[in-house]
Amino acid sequence: MTINPVKALLFAVGGSVAAAGTAYVSGALDPYLNRAPPAEVASLTPPVEKPAEPGTDGPVSPAPATDARAPAAPATADAIAPTFDIVRVEIKGSIVVAGNAAPNAK
Hints:
By secondary structure, the protein is of the alpha+beta class. 25% of the residues lie in helices and 12% in strands. A two-stranded antiparallel ribbon has the order 1-2.
């Protein structure tokens, strides 16, 4: 069996595809394929508004809003911490666990 140029080319292409596939699956190409775009830089200073002339309708200062992200009061003050006991461990690895907690505890 003689080696002709077509067989040599197919062998080289097959080896290259196998090497590229292995590099892709192993993550060696991740730094080259997943380049993150540069982050946008926000302006450092907000635009300055001119103060309103006396006697004219200028911008109205906003009313203080209530903080929507204020933490809510705890649901119950006397919350019971759940306790767990291991009741039984089977030879095959199954476990029965029992315990006490407040109603509808998650």
